[in-house]
Amino acid sequence: MPLGYCIKMKNVKYVYRRGDLMKEIVLPLTDGRKLLIHSDAIQKMQKYRQFESKDTEAGGILIGRIICDSNDFIVDDVSEPMFSDKRKRTYFKRNANEHQMYFDSKWITSKGRCFYLGEWHTHPEKTPNPSRTDLNDWKRISKLDFESDHLFFLILGTEKMGIWCIERNQYTLNILGSVIIDE
Predict the structure, then answer these.
(1) Is 105 exposed, middle or buried (0-12, 13-18, 19+ CB in 10 A)?
(2) Among candidate residues 33, 48, 25, 30, the one with its CA nearest the CA of residue 158
(3) What is the mean pLDDT of residues 23-47?
(4) From CA 127, how far away is CA 99, in angstroms rounded?
(5) Displacement of CA 77 from its chain's centroid (Å)
(6) Of residues 24, 52, 57, 125, which has the active-site annotation?
(7) pTM of the predicted model, to two decimals?
(8) 147 is known as an active-site residue
(9) What is the DSSP string of the chain?
(10) Who's near 77: CB < 8 A, 6+ residues apart?
(11) CB 25, CB 8: distance < 8 Å
């Protein structure tokens, strides 16, 4: 495929790069801006999908940039599960301190040019839906102090990734899309 070849599918754009089959996801926001999730971040999260009955939920934080000219959001990286996270088949609670340390190291190496953009975790279902616990956590998180006016929440199922957004001070959850993910 030529460099920058794009496929558009139900408001989701997949971007493939020549020679490496890396996939980025671009989703439109309701206000005209975009959310781009880089392939490296997608690949890190995909490692933790729950295919086997013994697999436990995993998760972390979304780290990225807000582009000055357009105010588009780019997820460049994600933290991976830490040893002290609480993980069960249908439960995940991240250790805030360890994920903060990971974020702090990224913030230093980026010279202060990265931001906390939200959370991700897995579910043991094909098409993930947020649980009551997820919804309560997202509402709580959205009331905290953060740099941007949007927070994003991703859940990876075994076949699809659900992507939701909360705008600052509105506490209304918007689904941005359900995207088919592959190996």
Answers:
(1) exposed
(2) 48
(3) 93
(4) 26
(5) 9
(6) 57
(7) 0.88
(8) no
(9) --TTEEEEETTEEEEE-TTT--EEEEEE-TTS-EEEE-HHHHHHHHTT---STTPPP-EEEEEEEE-TTT--EEEEEEPPP-TTSEEETTEEE--HHHHHHHHHHHHHHTTS--EEEEEEEE-SSSS----HHHHHHHHHHHTS--SSSEEEEEEE-SSEEEEEEEETTT--EEEEEEEE---
(10) 38, 40, 41, 44, 63, 64, 106, 114
(11) no
Which pair of tokens denotes residue 169? Answer: 């001070």
Residue 72 structure tokens: 């588009």
Interval 62-94: pLDDT, tens: 999 999 989 999 999 999 999 999 999 999 999
Residue given tokens 């927070």 in the structure block: 151
The pair of structure tokens assigned to 48 is 């933790």
91-93 and 173-180 strand pairing = unpaired
Contact 33, 71 (CB under 8 A): yes
Q: Say which amino acid occupies 18.
A: R
